[in-house]
Amino acid sequence: MNTHVRMGDSRPAPTRRGFLIAAAGTGVTLGFTTGAFGALGLPGPAGQPLVEPTLWYGLDKTGHVTVHIIRAEMGQHVGTALARIVAEELEVDWDKVSIDHVDSAAKWGLMVTGGSWSVWQSFPQLSQAGAAGRMALIEEGAKLIGVDPASCTARSGVVHSGAKSIAYGDIVAKGNLARNYTPDQLAKMPIKPAAQRRLIGHDIQALDIPSKTNGEARYGLDAHIPGMVFARPKIPPTRNDSKVTAVDDSAAKSVPGYLGYKVLDDPSGTVPGWVMVLGETFPAAYAASEKVNVTWSSGAAAQVSEADLQARAAQLIADPKSGSLVVEDPGVDAAFASAAKHIEATYTTASALHFQMEPINALAFEKDGVFEIHSGNQWQSLILPTLAKALGRPEDKIVLRTYLLGGGFGRRLNGDYMVPAALTAQALGKPVKMVCTRADDVRFDSFRSPSVQTLRMAFGPGGKVTAMDHAASAGWPTEVMAPFFMPKGENGVPYDPFAISGANHWYSTGAQRVRAISNDLANRSFRPGWLRSVGPGWTNWAVESFMDEAAHAAGVDPLAFRLALLDGAGRNAGGPPSAVGGAKRQAAVLAAVAKKAGWGAKQPADTGLGIATTFGQERDMPTWTACVAKVHVDRKTGAVKVQKLTLVTDAGTIVHPNGALAQVEGAALWGMSLAVCEGTAFAKGQVADTNLDTYTPLRMADVPELDISFIPSSEPPVGLGEPATTVVGPAIGNAIFAAVGARVRHLPIRPEAVLAALKG
User: Fold this and answer.
1) How far apart are CA 340 and CA 458, in angstroms?
2) Considering only CA atoms, which of 706, 740, 723, 682 is closest in space to residue 306?
3) Which CATH number fits domain 221-297+360-435: 3.40.50.2300, 3.40.50.300, 3.40.309.10, 3.30.365.10?
4) What is the arithmetic mean of pLDDT over 731-735?
5) Which contiguous run of DSSP H or E holds residue 296?
């Protein structure tokens, strides 16, 4: 590692709370206080938990419960949702509950927050844990008050038996709560019937709202330790194959507080070609970095364009032997050969960026032989092995301290930004806090790959659908970052499940084929990433646009066409634990949204309704979702005005109603933004747009009327963070066709594409 550094003490960093308190006063005076690092600023327990009936929570002598949260908090109130599950079964009042976002440790198992998995995966586990605690407290409480446990009930943190009772806190203080439950015993724990729930499904205050509004909440950017230095990176021209050939920092030496630079040598290969510019403060590091000139040599990616990526995808799709057969029914080719009619269409999507509000950052240092990294992260279990390789030490000598995320959306599933901070801190022997600017963040983004998809459908006698063939190609984030998550297709070829989910739909379309194809050029040229809804954000764009095209080709109303195919036959019947009802439940949300939106009613000139339905993410955790979009199209300019989005969702049991509504609202607007606003282009090793002046997400003034509802259900809860993202885009595209007869097949939908479709 090349080193040119002048060391000095850093200045204390302001806490957000200190800033907000000062800002609330008169004038423009800003007050700053020095805060300790490591705390999230979320509600804490009344006392140190004395008893932990399971790994997931503890109780103290006041009866206060602290629930341990392994999921990342990024605005979705996940701690509140998970704590509700425990508190419901444990039978404690909400004002006796707090949450603790834990640091990385092997005991927690897989630590990941993505894919809309958190509540779905945790519900059975935490329900059983809460029920186990309730049973243990009843048993021990019965001993203390001298009654038969069978005569006892628990409610609001108290065990009752007739006139006798004892509070949980007293049981903790006086009893012996040592209990061990086997996995089989936990699985058999009696869980409340839905009708008896007092917390799940009811409106209560989210636990993290006070700290987020009073300034106490701690984000990665708030992390601070005395003596740390700041670093801003010089991002190389390409992600994977740039090498530093020269550094000139002569102009930077005039910047007050400049401490030098470091050329990183990364054994993990995460940040090749990185140069870290150091300063006593971030302003010093930033100013100096603008004056440090770095020369790189770069590989082939520096010549790759978006058009090259799309051309490669199309080339791969054209080869029938390429890719993995995710679904391969007998008779697909025969059905097309004998078809009375068939249709084919190709759909594309552009590169799409995350642009979370908090740019990536990390604070790293060694303490007592353990390397600590303070940052917000969505997948601790994924980045720990990479950090171990980069630092040359075992994983158990690295700990990730948990902070709130100022937006994640899949970007922080990839914790690559921790590596440069850790390497720099290791080399300096001092704490280093790396902070990226917005443009740095974007240039290092693991963005959503552009995609190409070709779909075909065969019709037999009477217009019956006899076969469907779907081939999809894009860069695969899981192949690049987590290949151990990749199953094998019917032909034995592994595939990225998160890049093809959605294509294996619930429609009965006769013989079906789904082929997932990795775009090798994309994988080499940048690091494809998971972006909110991942593959279904573009696979469902193709499926639901194509269903509309197929309906029109068959001369059938798009709603009726879909309902006929959602018959729940064969593998589309669904089943436990999370897909009970299968396609019939998807048909129910589709019918409900059509009724709410007034499907079939006459619309004003150049205004149309478009319909789409998806199951959100994956077949084993379907969130049945349907949307009707109402749009107006200006025939002269091609401009599309989305006037209203009506959505109906069946997500099983709704644990946190306010959070569920916010999730669907946010996901729907994100889907709309990706449909008509967001998109960039890859060019010469980098994305073309690096800030929000040219990359233009949906603005508040363009937010349409939203009508969102949920189907009441006592089925197990599934995911809500992403499904609405997958359904809005195709609903808008279909509405454009209904309004003016223009069929668009590329996201984002630009006015010029609408005009071209009108002419074509």
Assistant:
1) 8
2) 682
3) 3.30.365.10
4) 99
5) strand 293-297
The span from the CA of 560 to the CA of 562, in Å, is 5
Helix (H, G, I), strand (E, B) or coil at 344: strand
Q: Which residues of 211-236 are buried (b: 16+ CB within 10 A; e: fewer)?
A: bbeebbbbbbbbbbbeebbbbbbbbb
What does 633-673 look like in DSSP terms, one character per residue? E-TTT--EEEEEEEEEEE-SS-SSHHHHHHHHHHHHHHHHH
Instruction: Match domain 329-351+447-505+516-759 to its CATH number in 3.40.120.10, 3.100.10.20, 3.40.50.10490, 3.30.365.10.
Output: 3.30.365.10
CA distance 562 to 553: 13
Task: Give the strand order in the sheet containing 361-367.
Answer: 2-5, 258-263, 275-279, 229-234, 432-435, 361-367, 370-375, 398-402
Does the structure show a pLDDT above 60 at 27?
Answer: no
Structure tokens at 408: 């994640």
Q: Is residue 696 within 8 Å of 749, Cβ to Cβ?
A: no
DSSP 155: E
CA 453, CA 193: separation in Å to the nearest integer?
A: 45
Per-residue pLDDT, 322 = 98
Q: What is the dihedral angle through the alpha carbons of 711, 714, 719, 725, rounded to the nearest 10 degrees?
A: 0
Sign of CA dihedral 187, 188, 190, 195: positive
Output helix, strand, coil percentages for the chain, rounded to the nearest 5: 35, 25, 40
Write the CA distances from 315 to 152, 206, 225, 473, 542, integer angstroms.
69, 50, 52, 10, 18
Tokens of 355: 């642009």
Cβ 526 vs Cβ 447: under 8 Å: yes
Secondary structure of residue 231 in the 3-state scheme: strand
Given a contact cutoff of 8 angstroms between Cβ atoms, the answer to whether 397 and 277 are in contact is no
CA-to-CA distance for 642 and 631, rounded, in angstroms?
A: 4
Distance from C-alpha of 676 to C-alpha of 697, rounded to nearest angstrom: 9
Tell me: cis bond preceding 748? Omega within 30 of 0 counts.
yes
Predicted structure pTM score? 0.93
- DSSP states along 238-286: SSSS-EEEEEE-TGGGGSTTEEEEEE---TTSSSTT-EEEEESSHHHHH
| Residue 309 Cα distances to 297, 312, 318, 451, angstroms | 22, 5, 14, 8
3-state per-residue secondary structure call for 696-760: CCCCHHHCCEEEEEECCCCCCCCCCCCHHHHHHHHHHHHHHHHHHCCCCCEECCCHHHHHHHHHC
Domain 51-214 in CATH 3.40.30.10? The answer is no
Quote the Cα angle for 72-76-77, to 5°.
Answer: 80
- The predicted-structure confidence for 510-563, as pLDDT tens digits, reads as follows 999 999 999 999 999 999 999 999 999 999 999 999 999 999 999 999 999 999
DSSP 41-88: -PPPPSS---EEEETTEEE-TT--EEEEE-SPPSSS-HHHHHHHHHHH
pLDDT at position 20? 30
CB atoms under 10 Å from CB of 11, counted, come to: 16
Contacts of residue 72, defined as CB under 8 A and 6 or more positions apart, other chains included, come to: 78, 101, 113, 376, 377, 378, 402, 405, 408, 412
Tokens of 290: 């603008």
Identify any residues that bridge with 66 across adjacent strands, giving them in sequence order. 58, 98
Cβ of 28: how many Cβ atoms within 10 Å? 7
Tens digit of each residue's pLDDT (9 = 90 or more) over 123-153: 999 999 999 999 999 999 999 999 999 999 9
Size of the chain, expressed as the number of residues it contains: 760
- pLDDT value for 29: 21
Per-domain residue ranges of the chain: 51-214, 221-297+360-435, 329-351+447-505+516-759
Residues paired with residue 521 on neighbouring β-strands, in sequence order? none
C-alpha count within 13 angstroms, C-beta hemisphere, residue 446:
27
